[in-house]
Design goal:
Elements: H1 3-15, E1 27-31, E2 34-37, E3 42-45, H2 48-51, H3 60-72, H4 83-93, E4 100-104, H5 107-124, E5 132-136, H6 145-150, E6 168-171, H7 176-182, E7 187-192, E8 195-196, E9 202-203, H8 206-219, E10 222-226, E11 250-253, E12 264-268, H9 270-273, H10 289-304, H11 307-328, E13 333-339, E14 342-347, H12 352-360, E15 363-364, E16 366-368, E17 372-375, H13 383-399
Parallel strand pairs: 3-15, 5-6, 5-7, 7-10, 10-11
Antiparallel strand pairs: 1-2, 2-3, 4-12, 8-9, 11-12, 13-14, 14-17, 16-17
The protein binds pyridoxal-5'-phosphate.
């Protein structure tokens, strides 16, 4: 490693809160589906900044919008009507069955907004003291106190943060009877991911997803979907809930919305959105001019270039080739699963060494829960890059003892 790398790591360790277990890699530049480290070495990006750079890095059309919009209006606050914000809301609503949008700055804030809306809707529109939010084991919904509490994982993620907010319940993933038994008059909403990303790329079975929606309707509570990782064409539909024709009362998005600029959104049906009134929820930066203009262009490009179709086709191709690797090495790979370009490769043993070997060969991906190689490539990645990754993985696994 170069001195520049070592120096950077030492400075990082001195001045930043050490909350991340970083890869031994310092990225300086990124273009399309390529990352370049401080030594100029090139990597195939199979992570997209964790499902963010869906259109690839430094997309020329987005750079142009950034430049033009920055010269016009970057931020003015939500005390004003803003043309770019309204345009973006209209475009997003054109992709789904919701009626209103609240813009914010991250995934956690989008879920926080959804949780607050569910509670306030129950109290102010339905006149019910229904405040509980039910989520699934293995889920991930963010790191604010409420979204962390909603997150269905235990261990370090929650340690030391007591007392956590009240009013959250977690039920086993895939067990509809457990959900039925947990729903009560106090339930405001059930919040699910269509594919648990941080949980290790676990797609929700179709029948179960439908049953969750049906149960919510029967129990008069809200059906809410966290599309922060699955949304914006990643899984082969514009929104992952559209695979099963579901119609959530509320859903959330973030990550790829502005392709790298921090932006989140909560979308809600008309009657539910009435739960918010002027002053009941707000954020300074949400839906600012620059962010909205870039996100608007992102939506245009996703639709124009049919990137959901591409994600579906490339996802099928990648999964087919990875399943061939699994068939050749069944003692090394226990499962290949995913939806579109959200793919998990579950290894039989700890994946640290394989993950490092892939990086050595120039492929950057994520390792979830120590055993699942998680691929979230830009939706514009080439077929050749995906096939080269499968070949490298096969080679590495065949050499492993
Ligand atoms: C499904 C899901 N929900 C919420 C979040 C939190 O998003 P953010 O990190 O932007 O707060 C994430 C982030 O990984 C996520 O994958």
């Amino acid at each position: 490693m170069s001195i520049a790398y070592d120096t950077l790591v030492a400075r990082d360790k001195k001045v930043l809160c050490q909350t991340y277990g970083r890869y031994p890699l310092a990225i300086e530049r990124a273009v399309g589906s390529r990352l370049f480290d401080v030594d100029g070495r090139e990597y195939v990006d199979l992570l997209s900044g964790i499902a963010v750079a869906n259109l690839g890095h430094s997309h020329p059309e987005l750079l142009q919008v950034m430049q033009e919009q920055a010269g016009e209006l970057i931020h003015v606050s939500n005390l004003f009507y803003q043309p770019r914000q309204v345009e973006l809301a209209e475009k997003l609503l054109g992709t789904c069955a919701c009626d209103r949008v609240f813009f914010c700055n991250s995934g956690a804030e989008a879920n926080e907004a959804a949780i607050k809306l569910a509670r306030r809707y129950m109290r102010t529109v339905r006149y019910r003291d229904a405040h509980e939010i039910i989520t699934l084991t293995g889920s991930f919904h963010g790191r604010t106190l409420a979204t962390l509490t909603a997150t269905g994982q235990q261990g370090r993620i929650k340690e030391g943060f007591d007392p956590l907010p009240e009013g959250f319940r977690c039920v086993p993933f895939g067990d509809i009877e457990a959900l039925r038994a947990s729903i009560s008059g106090k339930t405001a909403a059930v919040l699910i991911e269509m594919v648990q990303g941080e949980g290790g790329v676990l797609p929700l079975p179709e029948a179960y997803a439908r049953q969750v929606q049906d149960l919510c309707h029967e129990a008069n509570c809200l059906f809410m979907v966290d599309e922060i990782q699955t949304g914006l064409c990643r899984t082969g539909r514009f929104w992952a809930h559209q695979h099963f024709d579901l119609a959530p009362d509320v859903f959330t998005t973030a990550k790829g919305l502005a392709n790298g600029l921090p932006m989140g959104a909560m979308l809600a049906k008309e009657h539910v959105a009435r739960g918010f009134a002027p002053g009941s929820h707000a954020t300074t930066f949400g839906g600012g001019g620059l962010l909205s203009a870039v996100a608007s262009k992102v939506v245009d490009i996703l639709l124009r270039d049919d990137l959901s179709g591409r994600a579906q086709d490339l996802g099928n191709l990648a999964c087919d080739s990875l399943r061939r690797v699994q068939a050749a090495l069944p003692d090394k790979i226990t499962a290949v699963r995913g939806l579109g370009l959200m793919i998990g490769i579950e290894l039989a043993e700890s994946g640290e060494a394989v993950h490092a070997a892939l990086r050595e060969r120039g492929f950057v991906c994520n390792l979830a829960h120590g055993k699942v190689l998680r691929l979230l490539p830009p939706l514009v990645i080439s077929t050749d890059d995906l096939l080269a990754f499968a070949a490298a993985l096969e080679d590495i696994l065949s050499q492993a003892k």
